[in-house]
Amino acid sequence: MSWRIVSLLGTLILLTFVSGCSLSPSIEKKRFFVKRNWLRSTPEEKNLHFRRMNRMRPIVTDKLVISGNAVDRMTAFDRKTGKLLWVRRLKDGVEGGAQLLGRWLFFGASDGLFYALNSETGQTKWTFPVRVEVLGEPLVHKGIVYFLAGNNVLYALEAVSGKQKWTYNRLDSSQFSIRGASRPIVIGANLYLGFSDGSFMALNKDKGTVIWEKNLNQNKRFRDVDSSPVSDGQRIYVSSFDGALYCLDPKNGKIYWKLEEGGYAPVLIVKDTLYYSTSKGQIMALDKGSGKVKWSRDGVRGIATKPVFYRGLLVYGESQGALQILDASTVQQVGQYKTGRGVTSTPYLDQKTGDIYFMSATANLYALQFSWDVLNRVWPWE
Questions:
Q1: Which of the chain's termini has less CB crowding within 10 Å, N or C?
Q2: How far apart are alpha carbons 66 and 120 in whole angstroms?
Q3: Distance between CA 128 and CA 165 in Å, rounded?
Q4: Is there a contact between 316 and 308 (Cβ–Cβ < 8 Å)?
Q5: In this structure, what is the dihedral angle of CA atoms 97, 46, 368, 56, given to the nearest 10 degrees?
């Protein structure tokens, strides 16, 4: 009798063990983490004047993070440690942005000069006198630097020497501007960009002659077409601040569709979807072919930067809020990072490491890292 009891107990223990294994957790909840690696204040002195637009997207290499503020200088930091490596003092700083090609850094500053610097040392290769502030990010293409100055003059310079190749001057009689400038793009033999008078143009990239022009925004207070155009190879997408988002034919400027929402930042293209930050505080997802709205999220504090995409997440800064991280499919907030005074530069996000760098409204340079971690295990019936 006692052996039967022992045998029965053994069977029950075995069944309990087996059923326990079969009901082991198989569903995992994940939590998104934002870790700060380092933080650096980039101005030499506190900005005691009017608020500056510190909107230059950081330039990131394997070793360096280069950042320009709109106050007084360009700085380079060690990517891992945040150690200051070199400083280039500039009167009123840099607003429009820069491009790195090889070891050479190209940018226009608010002191009336355009610069080519050695990115490793900060030493000058050459300068070119513009005599007005440069608010647009340059484009370096096949040995030529293209950029738009604050007085609506488009320059083409030789990247090696800084020698002027050609200029195009477009007069603007408007008294109102949002102090921005379009970064050109090249498609084939043509250069495309917008101007503060509401026009969008195609010019021959070798001569600067006009191929076609399109007046996109003539009836608003701020007519500026300052957002940088973006192309998928077949069409061009560009917005005016008070006007609309336009889808154009690069051959002749024909408008395929437009969305009556103005914008300042370039669109982001991910497969068949456009992600768009409007000037009225929205983030939108649009069908690339038709312009039809897939979803819209209101409540952006200030104006959103151009969004960036990372493993199904949409990341953007709010000029008067925080760095926001959304699930691009559900539009739900996954996380955020508060800087205290807003985020004004488009973030740089390393797709391999999850490292992200951006400038705050107060000219602080942030180095963060994104990651997922298992929060806890959940039983199947929970």
A1: N
A2: 10
A3: 12
A4: yes
A5: -10
Asked if 170 and 194 count as a contact pair (C-beta separation under 8 A), the reply is no
Site of tokens 């009336």: 112
For 292, the token pair is 């039809």
Residue 206 near residue 213 (C-beta atoms within 8 A): no
Please, what is the Cα angle at 368 between 73 and 351, to 5 degrees? 105
Pairing mode, strands 59-60 and 27-41: unpaired
Residues 276 and 306: their CA atoms lie apart, in Å, by 7
In tens, the pLDDT along 270-281 reads: 999 999 999 999
Structural domains of the chain in order of their starting residue, each with its CATH number: 25-42+279-382 (2.130.10.10), 44-169 (2.40.128.630), 183-264 (2.40.10.480)
Return the structure tokens found at 228. Answer: 């940088």
| The residue to which tokens 């940088």 are assigned | 228
Cβ proximity of 193 and 205 under 8 Å: no
Query: What pLDDT was estimated at residue 19?
Result: 38
pTM value is 0.87
